[in-house]
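Annex B, item 7. Sequence and structure tokens for protein A, then protein B.
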Amino acid sequence: MSIPEYLILSVSSVEAVYNGAIAALHGVDLLVGRGEIVALLGSNGAGKTTLLRAVSNLLPAERGAITAGRITFGGEDVSRASPSHLVRSGLVQVLEGRHCFRSLTVEENLFTGALGRSSSRTGVKADLDRVYSLFPRLAEKRRTRSGLTSGGEQQMTAIGRGLMSRPKLFVLDEPSMGLAPLIVDEIFSALKRLNRDEGLSILVAEQNSAVALKYADRATVLENGVSVLEGSAADLRQRTDIKTYYLGGAPLPPQHFPKETAA
């Protein structure tokens, strides 16, 4: 089946398991158009990280596997490509947990994002300046070891390193986790700027639905490994049930979420 050209990522009826027995995803659907920001929402354990691993073909490294469905990036079946090939093709992911080389300086960490790509020294310097323009505080800490920087600065470093790989689709797993609201807004504002000015496509998984829906164009909600709701971010922001379920209210029963599209 051909994939429409306007889509950069297509997830169709994907099912996944760990250790050959533990079901994690059940027929998940998700689309990301070129130039879109799409939020993947859900509580802890909903299946967000599993889906992002599947998108980057990282499940085998976690003893996981896709057992049904199909994921394509730019029309290419990701299950037939190595994670490194996907990165070189432009599918770049920032994993959950602020993964930095703590003994390296901020700038050395950023340079690692440019390894393995063919680019001139001038091109790498331009990309580095672009990261510093997005996150000025990294420029101030460029000679500081990453292990001595704050949590927010480490997250910015991880994101900047990903940007040094020149993504076409930038995938982020819980970038707001454990960070102060002002830092979260700074990070999401930078991502929105990249999307607006450069047309960068972004898929971001978040428990923090308030900030995700503020910056995203569309969103998909996962619950127990099932995509239960999708729609425009503007529409979902107005849904009282989403606010109740994801912004600290009483949990809603599973039957409250039939498969639907927000109107």
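Protein B:
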Amino acid sequence: MQSNTEPPNKPNHPPPPPSSQPALLSSLTSLPEDLIVSCLARISRSYYPKLALVSKSIRSIILSRMLHKVRIREIKFEEERVYLGLRSPTNLCLIWYSLWIKRDHQALDLCMMRQENTTGNLLVPVPSSYSLSPSDIMFPNIGSELYKCGGTQNSPSSSDVKVYNELTGQWREAPSMMLARKEPLTRISDKKIYVMGGCKADESSHWGEVFDIETQTWESLPDPGPEVRFSSNIKLLLRSEKIYVKATNKNFVYLIKEKEWKVVKERLMVINCWIENVNYYYDKNKCWWSEKGSNEGRIVKGLTGLDACSRNDTEIGTYGGELVMFWDSPALSPNDQTKKIWCAMILLDKRISGQVWGRIKWVDIVCTVPVSYTPASCVNMST
């Protein structure tokens, strides 16, 4: 017998299963803290920025030095990371990106023909909520003490100076700077910390200052002039009691003994990195190398195709003993609001003839950024 009653309408698709994320989060946070630390210490640091967004307690553990100690001393889990800092005209601080590398690669000619990512290698922004960026780790150090001068990416400008003792694990306060700064450039020479920038460009009285470790006092440096202060991308190089400054259009040097600034015409190797006692640097749209203690630069052979496409805004670094190069390509039209960031991984071979040859392992577009951004710093860290 057939019933005249129609069955209730059933959905065509079953309802989605309930999300398991809250349960997983609850399970993780319910564990003892030392067990959470042990679990997080076994995860690649590349996942830390996203994990830091999960909860305040997880973020606190990720940013703690306890996690760093467990990774390095107990588990002995160190991994190499490459960061690229981009300069924005509206931000005093660098905007940091982390390079994520996949194992499969494409040939140079294939990648250069396309305006899209082909290898899967990407530059990933380091979220602002994840404060453990290269700028927070690269403090100037004297002996076992690290000096944190001013504010960092996720803190306001400050004149505070804090000193961290790596032996005791304790922080202490040092005399404040004369001017509030945010991520200033620093160099150390003869137990003195030279601090420059990190403030408004029209600040001429205290744009640079120096801290004497022995007397614990700050002193203003002479004004370098507007060409330095208003430069969009400043780089420092310390050599033989001289601080060289590469500005946008000219190079300058601060003579420490004479306490004066001068314009210099010599080539500055500020875009450089060291690999096995060989200094690699980028200048005049080419990659160069020189032996330790030598000022004679030689061109790295075999990079003709790469030299033709790279630009002036180029940064180089090292990853696993290989050379990493970043550069930006110009916008395709005047109306474009974005541009591409390229990256190349280069294998190096020093031959019996005394020449260094480079072989391009892969090259690709790794990020799209606002057209006003420029590469400013490449940092390699093992953490």
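Comment on protein B: The CA atoms of residues 52 and 118 lie 29 Å apart.
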